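In the lab's daily routine, each protein ends up as an entry in a very long ledger. A line of letters takes care of the sequence, but it says nothing directly about the fold. The three-dimensional part falls to structure tokens, numbers that each stand for a local backbone shape. The outcome of that step, for a single protein, is printed below.
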Amino acid sequence: MNILHINTRYIGGGGAASIANLLHNEINKQEGMKSRFLYGRGESNDPNSVKISYEFESYISAGITRVFGESLNRRLSKRAKKEIDNADIIHIHNLHGYYVNYENLIDYIVEKDKKVVWTLHDTWAFTGRCAFTFGCEKWKTGCGNCKNLSIYPTTKRDVSDRLWIKKKNLFTRLNKEKAIFVTPSEWLKGLVKESFLKEYKVEVINNGVEKSNFLDIDKSILRKQFNLPLDKKIVLFVAADPNDERKGVKYILDILDKADDNTLFVSMGKKIDIENEKLIQLGYISDRKAIYKVYRMSDVFVIPSLDDNFPTTVLEAFANGVPVIGFDSGGIIEQIVNGINGYLVCNKDSSNLHEKIKSAIDEKEINQLEERVITIFNRRYDLKNFICNYIKLYNYI
């Protein structure tokens, strides 16, 4: 069985690439299965991956999209067509990112009558332009007068009404007997069933991540490797652009000065232009083992996203026995079992967030939470379960 994955990037740039990459590599370990990977941006050393377009084409397309609202009408490359021709199943992930003319891509897949699995990592496939809707429901009947033009994928001109119609007419051409949509959360499945894709079969397959090799290592040993204090409780978060409202980093910054002296906030990711003695910024970390070490040495992980699907950062924290505190939004509600493997916080409530962090880092509470976190992870989010569920779906389709 030959599977062709299609995504914006081979690796990096968000959770979709991470999930697609994991699945691709694990499939290639299975007997009788072969996976290829078409991607549009960044680089890859994997001989089973092929870049769908040249980098300069993506930049030109991105520039035009940001000004006019639509990307270049490029033809689908011969190499992309060849990969599609050779595949038994086309597994689509993210098509946004300016790297591919999705109209030509879908037209060719329909022409060849290919079997399709499409994993939705956000809402882009059934909205006029938005990857996350912030509660807007225009997409149910038709977009227009979009108030989120500054939110990814950004544009100066509002053509969301035309793009919604274009997507509806295009994506519903996929053969309903040969196409299955997958969502990582019940939350997103519910939105799909209210969209123009509602007549398609939709399966929920929770994201999965690798187990940790550091569960038996004392946190103090790991903290020494990062020159972090041994006598403080560490609250970890992944830093995004503070100007990106959806990521909600500002709600963590709001409570820094309220934290007890024995509490230290640590971030991975983009460095924020702020100086505070209660915040240490590790910056971007690319090595997977190092990332897992950072999770493992922490006492609690906070995800302040205001709108999210089924973030893998939550699962990576769980893999390392770390309880999670997050706002009660999107698919995060399904990941955190309140009081069992973490705490849910009222959306945008900084005071509630502060109180839940104080509760979670209590010594007795941490020990009880950690045991339950690992138990739930092994049962629901282990990578083996994730891969097994997708293989069952491939065999079914």
